[in-house]
Amino acid sequence: MESFGPWSLVALRTLLAAAIAGAVLMAGRVPVPDRRHRPGLLVVAAGVVVGFPLLTTLALQTSTTSHAAVVVGLLPLTTAVFSSLRTGARPSRAFWVAALAGAAVVIAFTVQQSGGALSGSDLYLFGALLVCAAGYTEGGRLAGVMPGWQVVGWALIVSLPLAVAGAALALPLEPVRPTAHGVIGLVWVAAGSTFLGLYVWYRGMAEIGVPRASQLQLAQPMLTLVWSFLVLGEKVSAAAPVAAIAVLVCIAVTQRAGRVRRAG
User: Which one, out of 72, 89, 95, 148, has a CA that is 20 to 30 A from the CA of 112?
Assistant: First the structure.
């Protein structure tokens, strides 16, 4: 974001990632997905490719990376809940107790950090949780019927027209200050985070299931705090790691709350 505005950044990362995906799909001569899979790909595109990066980028205009990391620490739980609803699973009472405790920790942290009220950046982050969890859930389901890299690739192709329009509108309006750090960051979020990262993520979800795979993200808040300190030099408040650990404990409890029962 030191080189690009939030709208330009999301549009450019999607354009670059879609170009990579298109080249890979063409090289593999992958056929167009069946019509029955296209609604799911739209959900993945809207939630993971566009919605989550855009909302988190907008939030980071006024929020620190460490603060965002704790709020996004609810993503594993949110994804597990979405997956349970999608598949008809019924979590146990202990699951919901731990889930509510984790939510209470996150809300208390965000209110304390914002001086007694939720800020606009927190609303962006909570919105990002919802759209990303929906995209992860649907992408995990699709990865069971097609390779994960194809799920990511076609979702990026679906997003391409919106990315082109977004770049055309945003680039003239937002300042662009190319720096080596900023350009490397753009290439990384496009090739690493958006394409390769989602490829291995969906492949993992297809092999071990969405709820179980989602818990691998339990390490994300703490890792983000560490990297924001090492790479960006951000100051981490004493409350941030405490809240992050508390969220991780609560989500871990939900995974140890016993086997869920299938509805019907």
Answer: 95
Please count the other Cβ atoms lying within 10 Å of the Cβ belonging to residue 190. Answer: 22
Q: Is the pTM of this model over 0.85?
A: no
In whole angstroms, give the CA distance from residue 144 to residue 127.
27
194-246 confidence digits (pLDDT tens): 888 888 888 887 777 777 777 777 667 667 777 778 877 877 777 778 888 88
d(CA 128, CA 48): 9
139 touches 205 (CB < 8 A): yes
Contact (CB, 8 A) for 102 and 236 = no
pLDDT in tens, 154-185: 999 999 999 999 999 999 998 888 888 888 98
Enclosing H/E stretch for 196? none
- Rounded to whole angstroms, the Cα distance separating 198 from 164 reads 21
User: What are 100-108's contacts with CB under 8 Å, separation 24+?
Assistant: 101/250, 101/253, 102/74, 102/77, 102/246, 102/247, 102/250, 102/251, 102/254, 103/74, 103/77, 105/243, 105/246, 105/247, 105/250, 106/70, 106/71, 106/73, 106/74, 106/243, 106/247, 108/243
The amino acid occupying position 8 is: S
